[in-house]
Specification:
Number of strands: 10
Helix content: 40-55%
Distance between the termini: 79 Å
Order of helices and strands: EEEHEHEHEEEHEHEHH
CATH topology of the largest domain: Nucleotidyltransferase, domain 5
Radius of gyration: 22 Å
Shape: globular
CATH superfamily of the largest domain: ATPase, nucleotide binding domain
CATH class of the largest domain: Alpha Beta
Largest sheet: 5 strands, mixed
Strand content: 25-35%
């Protein structure tokens, strides 16, 4: 069974193809973050290099977040559109788990951390035994101290993700030699892991219809927060006038 994997949640856009969970090909765009422009050509190259077409795919696995809000939307929308055309399932793959999976052979707890802005990280922690994982920290948006507390008793913790650019020194200060950082070229999200995990998730019945497959942001976007704040401000501004009008209507009814 062929599964196409799509990864657009970080600065690298990538597409990968697996057959029964075995990686066949991966293509990565390492230029400026223009995923909307480069994702479909990446997918086309991956398929053509293996002499395959969309009609050969059994499912499409997509990194469903957290990560870049715009990137998540591009990847999910592309996966859903292609799945609709071929009437095949979409497999939404947890981004942090896919990052950990790619490094599951490390003799350590694997802890991906993504910079979530606003002094937070998207983080999770797993320990692998073969293909099975035990969750040490559930994926979520955390203060860094919460992540460090969750792994503070572990002998060795392997960190990866773009959160290391901002928080690496604080992690080293807290954990010392127990903290291991992956090389920069191995820290970011990749479609190969998404496609591999997509196969195993599909086997376990976790494929979804293109209509029901949804992204996971873990928290509201900046635009959504601004809109809610604006709406709240407008409600507060209009409240006194509304209350005054109700009082006036009440007095009229008493006459």
């Amino acid at each position: 069974m062929y599964i196409l994997g799509i990864e657009t949640t970080c600065a690298l856009a990538s597409a990968a193809l697996t057959e029964d969970g075995r990686l066949l090909r991966e293509e990565v765009w390492q230029g400026p973050m223009t995923h909307l422009q480069h994702l479909l050509p990446l997918i086309d190259r991956v398929l053509k290099q293996e002499a395959l077409q969309l009609s050969d795919l059994g499912a499409i696995a997509v990194s469903r977040g957290p990560g870049s809000f715009t990137g998540i939307r591009i990847g999910m929308a592309t996966a859903k559109a292609l799945a609709q055309v071929r009437n095949i399932p979409v497999v939404p793959v947890p981004t942090l788990f896919a990052m950990a999976w790619a490094n599951r052979r490390q003799e350590a707890v694997i802890c991906p951390v993504l910079d979530a802005r606003r002094n937070q990280v998207y983080g999770a922690a797993y320990r692998f035994s073969g293909k099975e994982a035990k969750e040490r920290l559930k994926e979520g948006a955390y203060d860094l101290e919460q992540v460090l507390s969750a792994v503070s008793q572990e002998e060795t913790v392997c960190f990866l993700g773009d959160g290391l650019e901002r928080y690496g020194s604080r992690i080293e200060e807290a954990l010392g030699e127990r903290a291991v950082f992956l090389p920069k070229e191995e820290r970011l999200q990749r479609a190969a892991a998404v496609s591999e995990i997509g196969f195993f998730m599909y086997q376990r019945g976790l494929g979804e219809n293109y209509v029901t497959a949804m992204p996971e942001y873990l928290r509201s976007s900046e635009a959504e927060r601004n809109l809610l704040a604006k709406q709240k401000k407008e409600r507060e501004k209009s409240m006194p006038a509304r209350e005054k009008r109700l009082q006036e209507e009440g007095r009229e009814n008493l006459k």
